[in-house]
């Protein structure tokens, strides 16, 4: 467009430079005219010399290692039901981070742009020739990456690593570190679209107790509301929500409810009127409140790009405003891509207008990122309690707010298998607190598939069973005692655990630096092959304590009740021991320490403890960090740092040392200020 008249003021310049990129003055006839260029696509090409293997760019239902693209990877947040497998099309969230890796170097490329983005990846091999007395040739790999975004400015950061740990730290310093969740959020979550009423919820809760299956959280989907009006309760099915939450809290369990960004158009509903009169809705291109269709029918969409809207929305979670809520109620943000049933590609039109005049095309992938639920829950507690929020949509930095899941998957072996590289890709992009719906959201899983999915998900950070309302009920005790026992074991083990040829492996993964997991993802399997990396490593089977050298592929028999897990030599891990019904019970249980010696006969590890629910670890340094070191036959336990002030009375029940060559004659325990204690009755298994 063109603007005539005097030079624009500073505010206008700032807006236009940020919005359009440049303003060009023209020396021409009076009056002066200034040309403002409308948004246009931007792009950049990068050559990654020496790199063959690249990763990242979630979210796609594809392999962990990015493939040579006949079609580009698309980053555009969309509501995609039962998404296609091995596809480069966009899903619910986007992180424009690409990670390149080789044995001696890791680097990353972060393309900060929230508009629709395409990424081409092309792998090439260069033949280099050198002439000096004679001809030498060298083959060198190269990966070419082309970034293309619909609008915005080029804001590209190259993360130099040089090793993976340093690169991930650099990215976290840019976008934020993973939020430390409350302990209950790491337990098992039971969900369904939808549990019918309060009696149904209490019956499911009692079922877990009756069958001795631990769980921490039960979830309510959209049907718990009064006519799909969020922040309300169905007066017939959920007439006493406070009482329901109190009864769950007595068992140290929590309730999670869904809360979506679309607001039912209802002039008789006070919350809708507040949002309308406060200017909190996205506008259409004509300046009127934008309307689209979602679960409530005719809906308007909150404009989270506005600080005023975020402040208003977070205030809606206060206990005096959200009637029927308590401090033990937590939140699930769904449909926040945003999903618009009658919109283009089932989302908001790109010419919808946000606060400040920004078109939706410019910030589409940031819509769910700015949904201010976490702020609301923190404010509700006076800033003292860690919140739990699950979001379907995400962008770079969403790890600061809580958990992410992979959306509307399907009950099939193929979806179980693809969930592993999808979650690994999210973790590489900084979003470590992630998971997939156990058993598949849509269709009914066969019993073997359900067990294997529980076993895989039990060793992933976010662990939730969820299914659609048209599917059969699938509480863990509905499939016979063998299945119930296998699921019980998987859940119990979940909460009790606190080189070149590996670059394309995405069916097994590490938990931290100590545990290697290889879930069974195919039917009827009686034996699996596990790649044990590192020719100088030792790996111990956590079930049998058998030791295996690294740098080899191991064939391991499995049954329906087993999943291969190995502890790396040189590590120390701690587990809680004893019976529990939810993660809150773990704080009163003793721990066992497993020391896995490496080839040099040494091992090290750490144990972190705090109150597991508040921000006192951050604000008052109320935490305990202990370091374990095994060397020269002595296991030392000492403070890993002088800052922690948390006073814990955790009891060590047992110490197991793997890799001892000969049986020791005695064990001596030394506690500062106390007499030495000698133990001679030792269990030794060669």
UniProtKB/TrEMBL annotation:
Belongs to the glycosyl hydrolase 31 family. This is Glycoside hydrolase family 31 N-terminal domain-containing protein. Keywords: Glycosidase, Hydrolase. SUPFAM superfamilies: (Trans)glycosidases, Galactose mutarotase-like, Glycosyl hydrolase domain. It comes from the Eukaryota. The keyword Hydrolase applies. Residues 497-573 form the Glycosyl hydrolase family 31 C-terminal domain. It comes from Amphiprion ocellaris. Residues 38-119 form the Glycoside hydrolase family 31 N-terminal domain. Transmembrane segments: none annotated. GO terms for biological process: carbohydrate metabolic process; N-glycan processing. GO terms for molecular function: alpha-1,4-glucosidase activity; carbohydrate binding. Gene3D superfamilies: Glycosidases (3.20.20.80), glycosyl hydrolase (family 31) (2.60.40.1760), Golgi alpha-mannosidase II (2.60.40.1180). Residues 179-492 form the Glycoside hydrolase family 31 TIM barrel domain. Pfam families: Gal_mutarotas_2, Glyco_hydro_31_2nd, Glyco_hydro_31_3rd.
